[in-house]
UniProtKB/TrEMBL annotation:
Name of the protein this chain belongs to: MFS transporter
Transmembrane segments: 16-40, 52-70, 82-109, 115-132, 141-163, 175-195, 207-226, 232-251, 278-301, 307-329, 341-361, 373-398, 419-438, 450-474
Annotated membrane topology: Multi-pass membrane protein
InterPro entries hit by this protein: MFS, MFS_dom, MFS_trans_sf
Lineage: superkingdom: Bacteria
Organism: Streptomyces bambusae
Length: 488
């Protein structure tokens, strides 16, 4: 499918960018705002810790499974149409989450949210590429990165404030309802701002690739989420084996389809490029730590240090501010230094986690607020490192593939992003639970503040190892102009 190259005039482009960035903001806000609400959700719905992991990971997993298919649907049926459908679906599922009567229903609706996000969010970057000419894309892409950082900052504060105010007695349910007016406003602006494209043809969906990808990811993530809380029962090992078999089958099916001139969901030829393989590994390692860290901090701040949800959101500010500020600087640094900027970001994260470990080593201070304040420098530095890596990562990776493969490569990197996020929540959550020795909200065996900070310090060693891994992998990326992200 091809689209007409005509672009809307300048003022309309700015309106379109505002609509697209609002949708991106809503997507990142929904992921992070739930972390602040997680303890309240667990108490109100009488859920277990692994249920809360599933609430968070279910959204991410569904998004990861359907992401590339959502991008393909935009190619086939029009990005404006698919974007609008995703926005409306996201708002509807958000309203459903706000009314969920049980943890099981909430998990199912979060999966629906993830599927809607898979329709909505892939179109954002694609439409920026279509709407803005090559010479004007740098600023919209920089604003896109800054929007993600702003969502990371405001998600914690908005979530905490909504729970604290307890609007209409809704409690945690208001953190999902906040998406409804945003989604409806975005949908109302779509007809007047986003350009309509003439479709020149439709590419068939890769149904075998979609099913095998879904099977492989589900059989990998579900046992990680449920298996840790259940003491790793026997059934998890056949599930892991099934995931491996599904990946092997996916490789063979997609290889045959690509050899026959088809349009596979996962083109195997991309993996023959060393730079792409390394870049994908960086995305997996890097994003595994991000969402897991946000979940752990929410429980440490609220259940360990006894901060209110609003105070917990404010305590997240250093991490989010560091991320947002470094995201803007990271784009400019990448234009000058290419993939070497990832080494700077990884090194900054290492420093941040070392400072965090040193801060937690003596144990908690005399009050929760003093402990949170002591963590500010570590969170600010580690957040800055995350922003330096996150902003240019996709561009750096895509610079290692052929221009004609950029679409498929972008979808695969974004899929790796979401898969890694789900893995991070599962693995870091399991390690945190093991170090804590009890469910964070188990009233019969509730750990004290020292137990929470000790568990976070133990997980910080794992985060430190992941940051070192990012740096070691970044050293193997191509150097020179070919490693710098080209405008497309």
């Amino acid at each position: 499918m091809t689209e007409a190259p005509a672009r809307p005039p300048g003022p309309r482009r700015r309106g379109a960018l505002a609509v697209l960035l609002m949708a991106a903001f809503m997507g990142i806000l929904d992921v992070l705002i739930v972390n602040v609400a997680a303890p309240s959700i667990q108490r109100d719905l009488h859920a277990s810790f692994d249920d809360i992991q599933a609430v968070i990971s279910g959204y991410v997993l569904a998004y990861a499974v359907a992401l590339t298919t959502g991008a393909r649907l935009g190619d086939s049926y029009g990005r404006k149409r698919v974007f609008l459908l995703g926005v409306l679906g996201f708002a509807a599922f958000s309203a459903g989450c706000a009314a969920a009567p049980s943890a099981g229903v909430l998990i199912a609706l979060r999966i629906g949210q993830g599927l809607a996000a898979a329709l909505m969010l892939p179109q954002v970057l694609a439409l920026i590429q279509v709407i803005f000419p090559e010479r004007e894309r740098a600023r919209p892409l920089a604003l896109y990165g800054a929007t993600l950082g702003l969502g990371a900052v405001l998600g914690q504060i908005i979530g905490g404030a909504l729970i604290r105010m307890d609007v209409l007695g809704l409690g945690w349910r208001s953190v999902f309802l906040v998406n409804v007016p945003i989604g409806l406003a975005v949908a109302a602006c779509v007809p007047a701002t986003l350009p309509k494209r003439r479709l020149a043809g439709r590419r068939p969906l890769d149904i075998p690739g979609l099913l095998l990808t879904a099977a492989a990811m589900t059989l990998l993530i579900f046992p990680l989420i449920r298996g840790s809380a259940a003491g790793w029962p026997v059934w998890v090992w056949p599930a892991f084996a099934g995931s491996a078999l599904a990946l092997v089958a996916l490789w063979r099916v997609e290889g045959r389809q690509e050899s026959a001139g088809g349009a596979p969901l996962v083109p195997p030829s991309l993996f023959r490029r060393q730079g792409f393989r390394i870049g994908l590994a960086i995305a997996l390692v890097f994003y595994s730590g991000n969402y897991g860290l946000f979940l752990l901090l929410a429980y440490v701040f609220q259940d360990g240090l006894h901060l209110s949800p609003l105070a917990s959101g404010i305590a997240f500010l250093p991490l989010g501010v560091g991320f947002a500020g470094a995201s803007l600087a990271g784009h400019r640094l990448t234009a000058r230094y290419g993939s070497r900027v990832l080494l700077v970001g990884a090194g900054t994260m290492v420093v941040g986690y070392v400072v965090l470990i040193a801060t937690l080593l003596p144990g908690p201070a005399s009050s929760g607020w003093l402990t949170a304040l002591a963590m500010v420098p570590a969170l600010l530095v580690s957040g800055a490192g995350q922003g330096i890596v996150s902003a240019p990562l996709i561009g750096v990776v895509l610079a290692t593939v052929r221009r004609e493969d950029a679409g498929a490569g972008s979808g695969m990197v974004l899929t790796a992003n979401q898969l890694a996020s789900s893995l991070g929540v599962a693995v870091l959550g399991a390690v945190f639970l093991a170090l804590l020795g009890a469910d964070p909200q188990d009233t019969a065996a509730r750990p004290d503040e020292r137990g929470f900070t000790a568990a976070l310090m133990g997980c910080s060693w794992l985060l430190l190892a992941l940051a070192v891994g990012v740096g070691l992998l970044a050293r193997r990326l191509p150097r020179g102009d070919q490693a710098r992200p080209a405008s497309r």
